[in-house]
Amino acid sequence: MNTKNKIHAFCWLxxxxxxxxxxxxxxxxxxxxxxASNELLASEKQVELTFETRExxxxxxxxxxxxxxxxxxxxxxxxxxxxxxxxxxxxxxSSTVVETGTxxxxxxxxxxELNTVARNVGIEPETEKEVYFRLGLKTGxxxxxxxxxxxxxxxxxxxxxxxxxxxxxxxxxPTGTTLYSPEENGIYSGFMGVGSWENLLFQExxxxxxxxxxxxxxxxxxxxxxxxxxxxxxxxxxxxxxMDTQAAEWSALYLPSLQISGDISGEMTYSRSTGKWSYxxxxxxxxxxxxxxxxxxxxxxxxxxxxxxxxIDTPIGFKDNGGxxxxxxxxxxxxxxxxxxxxxxxIIDLNNPQE
Length: 355
What we know:
Layout: H1 3-25, E1 40-42, E2 46-48, E3 57-63, E4 82-88, E5 97-102, E6 106-110, H2 111-121, E7 128-138, E8 146-147, E9 151-156, E10 164-168, E11 174-180, E12 187-194, E13 199-203, E14 209-212, E15 222-223, E16 230-231, E17 237-244, E18 249-255, E19 258-262, E20 266-271, E21 276-284, E22 287-300, E23 312-321, E24 324-328, E25 334-338, E26 342-349
Parallel strand pairs: 2-9
Antiparallel strand pairs: 1-3, 3-6, 4-5, 4-7, 7-8, 7-9, 10-11, 10-13, 12-17, 13-14, 13-16, 14-15, 17-18, 18-22, 19-20, 19-22, 20-21, 21-26, 22-23, 22-25, 23-24
């Protein structure tokens, strides 16, 4: 490079450095103010909740508007506030905190919604406790929130039966089919008679509705967000369903048939309309018969999706457990007594998940 070109390049480098230094020193850094705390107000100081009034507004909150300020008066501060209403049984919010995201300047809870909040913060059913509420505001998910004043409301809750879960159609109407969670732990199970590719929703006792996860390729995952439905595989008939709200997933075990073996042999027939398996015993002599009932099912879950080729072959067998049938992977001996020689029907009724 000749001397003239070297001087020219040096001049351009000097100009760039000068402009960069000018930008750093001329006040071009823009600052967004920390949000100021709001004044939070509650519509009630004491609320007694009942199942009969669960759909009515039970408690409302309102708060003053918070405005962000920007250091450059010629610029507009965007509305980027994340607002959360928090509830806790401790005034310093050191115990379980239930958060409810909200927009605008108010939030109302129906009796059912507030009862769910009360249950989640730790209030025992049909007891009265003081619940503390505050508003948290921040300008980003990684920012520390600014809190409003704390208000307290004494709430008496009602019992929510979380043992029974309800199958809904896509319009959120009950279908009459239920699943059962004996431990009230959010894991429900039971048998269902369904059609090919049948859609469904699921509702818990606290009126939380679970839907299909709103994304492609996520069959058998569930969510309380969005408007997707869950759906069964293409096989029509009897399924053993597990709805696991803890893991946010569900599974469907298809029973293609039920085989009877032992003193009596045959194949049972399933009726979707009645939810029962049956086998006709024609002119059977009086006596006691030892039988076994089994099949090989097809398991569909988050790992298989609804693809039939990926469904997992699963051995299924029924056994007698104190006068009730229990399903497992191996069949046990079931004794049936025929009092007099005649025609009979051997029936397995799978409608009541509690039995």
